[in-house]
Structures are given as structure tokens and as C-alpha cells.
């Protein structure tokens, strides 16, 4: 009788990550461990490099476009791009077209050794006694060359902060929250997460505090949406900040209009006249004076 062989089960580690992998057959990108486990790149730079390598040729990867696509600021994205350039994963050059327009050409490398030599690690040299040698003649000075066109350095201004109401008001804040949550009924592309609604609600409350009608705020936020709309929360934050209306002017104080005297009936002719107290009208008083 044959003895049945029983394979020993694989041991699961007691701590750390456990991988549950599925084989990809479409829509996948091969990324090397030299990138995903890089010890000198930040997590933002590693994730940005993986995203760029997954894009088709000709895709837009400008700083402003990436800031609209992801929650990181333009400053963090610009710093991550500089990291990738320094370690050979990215190469950006500026070229001038025949029309005079300056464009940026970007090349993404999935293996940094193909783009640039790795950063050399300084090695400790053994201490030796220096050998004195005769000074070598200096090389001739190079001929002056015309100044090459330096690439324009673009300064990325910091994002302005969202407007805040001058006086906190719970009812106004609740109305602002309801307005943001209700935008998807009027425009399905303005579907916001709860975190985005909490972040944008004070800015909407500032609009309401300045006398803006909720319908006017809704029309301003949902009008002329770009196509495609990748970051609705970022677009609304820009509009709430850039299009903030001014406060309503103070209403002038109206002067008190004197009230007319009440109507009285003349005691002689029963004619109506205005006087502070009952009595005779002017005609009856004139007749009495003439008779006297």
C-alpha cells in the first residue's frame, strides 16, 4: 500500500506584511524595485514616478495639471519632480519652437542608469604622505562663448487660503454644508467627498455672510465647468477664493419724516381740517374775528 505524501503548509510570518497577489493580464505597469524601494527618494517622488511611467506617450505632466489631478500642492509636486531629475528617473529640457514659443520636453526613464550615472557615494581614502611635484602649467584660457539662453525659472506662487466668515454662525455654516452637498443634484460632476465639504463649507459661509443668495452661489460654482473635470474640489476652492464678492455697503440712515397733524372736524361748520386738537377751522375763526 502506497503512503500518501502530505506537503507541509507554508509558514505565515508572525508579523509584517503578507502579500496576496493576483496575476495582471491587462492595464498594468512594470516598475522596478530600485524605484519602489529607493532609500533617498521621498514617497511623493516614488508615487509620482510610478504614475508617470503608467501614462501613455504624450500625456500631460505639468505641475499645474498634476496639482489638479492629485491632492498634493504645486510646491510638493515640483520638489518631487526635481528629486526624480536628480536621481536619473526624469529629464526635462526646454526648447524653443520656430513660432518662438518655449515648451518643455520630458523623458521618463524606468531605469535610472539609462538616463544618468548613479550618484557616487564618497569613499574613505587611506591616508598617505603627499608627493611633491612640480606645478603643471595652467591651460590657456578658453575663448569667450556667447551666453546660452538660460531656461526661464518659473516661480510657483503659494495658494491663497480659503475665505473665512467674520462672525461664526451655526445656521449659516449648516446652510453652506447643505449647499455643497446638494451640488451633485444640479451637476453630477460636482460630487464631493465629506472631507472636501467640511473644508469648503467655511468659504461658502463667507459668501452667505456677504449677502450672496444661495442660488447665486450655486450658479457661480456650477457654471462653465472644464472638460474633463478631474478635481471638482480644487476647482470649487479656486472659484470660492478668486470670485469672493465684496461685503454689502452699509445702508444709509433714513431721516425721520414728520407726520402730518391729525384730521379734526370743525365745531361750527363740520368741515375737516388738520390741527393738533379739536376746535374751529381757519375760515370759522376768521369770520369770528371779522364779526368782532
Would you kindly provide a written description of the structure presented here, covering whatever features stand out?
Helix content is 34%, strand content 7%. The protein is mainly alpha-helical and 292 residues long. Among the domains are: 33-114, Arc Repressor Mutant, subunit A (Orthogonal Bundle); 170-222 and 230-242, no CATH class. The chain has a two-stranded antiparallel sheet. Strand 1 and strand 2 (102-108) form a beta hairpin. Helix 2 crosses helix 4 and helix 5 (170-181) packs across helix 7. Mean pLDDT is 80; it is low at 114-123.
CATH homologous superfamily assignment of the domain at 33-114: Winged helix-like DNA-binding domain superfamily/Winged helix DNA-binding domain
Helix content: 25-40%
Order of helices and strands: HHHHEEHHHHHEEH
Give the CA-based shape: elongated
**Averaged pLDDT, please?**
80
Total DSSP E strands: 4
- Which structural class matches the secondary elements? mainly alpha
CATH level-two architecture of the domain at 33-114: Orthogonal Bundle
- The Cα radius of gyration reads 39 Å
Q: What's the CATH first level of the domain at 33-114?
A: Mainly Alpha
Show unreliable segments: 114-123
In DSSP terms, counting alpha (H) and pi (I) runs of 4 or more, how many helices? Answer: 10
Report the β-strand fraction as a percent range.
5-15%
For the largest beta sheet, what order do the strands appear in spatially? 1-2
CATH fold name of the domain at 33-114, please? Arc Repressor Mutant, subunit A
Main beta sheet: strand number and arrangement? Answer: 2 strands, antiparallel
- Rounded to the nearest angstrom, the distance between the terminal CA atoms is 157 Å
Amino acid at each position: 500500500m502506497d503512503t500518501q505524501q502530505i506537503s507541509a503548509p507554508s509558514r505565515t510570518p508572525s508579523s509584517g506584511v503578507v502579500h496576496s497577489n493576483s496575476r495582471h493580464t491587462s492595464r498594468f505597469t512594470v516598475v522596478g524595485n530600485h524605484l519602489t524601494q529607493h532609500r533617498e527618494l521621498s514617497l511623493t517622488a516614488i508615487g509620482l514616478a510610478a504614475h508617470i511611467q503608467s501614462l501613455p506617450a504624450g500625456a500631460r505632466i505639468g505641475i499645474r495639471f498634476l496639482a489638479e489631478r492629485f491632492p498634493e500642492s504645486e510646491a510638493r509636486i515640483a520638489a518631487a519632480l526635481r528629486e526624480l531629475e536628480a536621481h536619473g528617473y526624469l529629464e526635462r529640457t526646454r526648447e524653443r519652437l520656430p513660432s518662438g514659443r518655449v515648451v518643455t520636453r520630458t523623458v521618463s526613464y524606468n531605469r535610472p542608469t539609462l538616463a544618468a550615472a548613479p550618484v557616487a557615494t564618497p569613499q574613505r581614502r587611506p591616508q598617505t604622505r603627499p608627493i611633491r611635484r612640480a606645478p603643471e602649467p595652467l591651460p590657456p584660457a578658453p575663448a569667450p562663448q556667447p551666453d546660452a539662453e538660460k531656461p526661464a525659472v518659473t516661480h510657483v506662487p503659494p495658494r491663497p487660503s480659503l475665505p473665512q466668515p467674520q462672525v461664526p454662525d451655526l445656521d449659516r455654516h449648516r446652510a453652506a454644508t447643505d449647499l455643497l452637498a446638494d451640488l451633485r443634484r444640479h451637476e453630477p460632476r460636482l460630487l464631493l467627498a465629506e472631507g472636501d465639504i467640511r473644508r469648503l463649507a467655511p468659504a461658502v459661509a463667507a459668501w452667505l455672510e456677504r449677502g450672496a443668495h444661495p442660488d447665486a452661489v450655486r450658479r457661480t460654482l456650477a457654471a462653465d465647468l472644464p472638460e474633463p473635470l478631474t478635481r471638482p474640489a480644487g476647482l470649487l476652492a479656486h472659484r470660492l477664493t478668486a470670485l469672493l464678492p465684496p461685503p454689502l455697503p452699509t445702508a444709509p440712515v433714513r431721516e425721520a419724516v414728520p407726520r402730518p397733524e391729525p384730521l379734526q372736524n370743525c365745531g361750527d361748520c363740520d368741515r375737516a381740517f388738520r390741527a393738533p386738537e379739536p376746535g374751529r377751522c381757519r375760515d370759522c375763526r376768521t369770520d369770528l374775528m371779522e364779526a368782532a
